[in-house]
Each structure stands twice: as C-alpha cells, then as structure tokens.
Amino acid sequence: MQQRARAMTAYQTAALTVTPARAIVMLYDGAVQRLQQAGRAITEGRIEERYRLVGKAHAIVHGLQCQLDFAAGGEVALLLDRYYAYLLHRMTQINVRNDPAICDEVIARLRDMRASWAAIAETGNAAPAPPPVQADHRPIVQLG
C-alpha cells in the first residue's frame, strides 16, 4: 500500500511539473504505443482488442486537436487541425479495413511530429513547423 501511495505522489508531482511540450510528446508516445498494439492485435485476429486500442489512440489525437488555439496559433493551428483530422480519418480506416499497414502509416506520421515536439521540449522553442500538406489537405508523405 505504501508503494502505491509513493507511486501516486510521484505521478502527481510529474503531472504538475511537466512542460506543455513534454506533455504533448507523452501523448504522442501513448498514441503510437496503442497503434503498435492495435497492429499486433490485427495480425493475431483480436478484433475487439484492435477496436479498443484504436479508440484509445483516436481519443488521444482528438484531444490534441481539441486543444488547438486558433486565435493564437494562426496558420499553424489550422494546419495542425488538418493534420489531426487526417490522422483521425486514417485511424477510422484501420477499423474499417482491419489493415496493419494503415497502423504503420499513422505511426510513422505520429513519430515524425513527435520528433518535432521532442525538439521543442528540449529547447523550449515555439510550435513545430506544421507538416507539409497537399491541395486535398492530406499531409505529404516523405519516404526514405
């Protein structure tokens, strides 16, 4: 019981002292982890587990999208909104198509943006450069 209380105290302290950029990195990590687990669930035929895990990743990304400040963020906020909308659409496609390749695509996109936020968390600079987007508002995939 005492160990649990210490763990809870440590968690609460961390939650109060983490920077906003670091919190965003942690959220990206959580979404990536859930999608990795969902990909494994697909290959192992655990459909209900896949659905639950994709739902958790979806909730994380939707939460990030809902926190965008369009008044202060200007064009960057608009581009991030489109980026998050695209990711949410692709996560829906994971459940519709039951395709681990879509999991891999979304994970790669999340990791790219996570790297930008991690750099911000380390340096304390402003918002990351938004991902490049095509005319149809889908982020441009840069392979290799």
Give an overview of the whole structure.
This protein has 144 residues and is an all-alpha fold. The protein has one domain: Up-down Bundle (Four Helix Bundle (Hemerythrin (Met), subunit A)), CATH 1.20.120.340. It is 78% helix and 0% strand. The chain has helices spanning 2-17, 20-43, 47-66, 70-97, 100-123. Helix 3 (47-66) runs antiparallel to helix 4 (70-97) and helix 4 (70-97) packs antiparallel against helix 5. The protein is flat. The model has no long low-confidence stretch (mean pLDDT 88).
Strand pairing plus helix content: what structural class?
mainly alpha
Strands, count: 0
**Assembly form of the protein:** single chain
What is the approximate shape?
flat
- As residue ranges, the low-confidence spans are none
**And the CATH topology?**
Four Helix Bundle (Hemerythrin (Met), subunit A)
Instruction: Give the terminus-to-terminus CA distance.
Output: 50 Å
Radius of gyration: 17 Å
Question: What is the CATH homologous superfamily assignment?
Answer: Flagellar protein FliS
Q: How many helical stretches?
A: 5
- SSE sequence, one letter per element: HHHHH
- What is the total number of structural domains? 1
Instruction: Tell me the CATH architecture.
Output: Up-down Bundle
Main β-sheet: number of strands, strand sense, barrel status? none
- Beta-strand portion reads under 5%
Helix coverage percent: over 70%
Mean pLDDT: 88
Q: What is the class in the CATH system?
A: Mainly Alpha
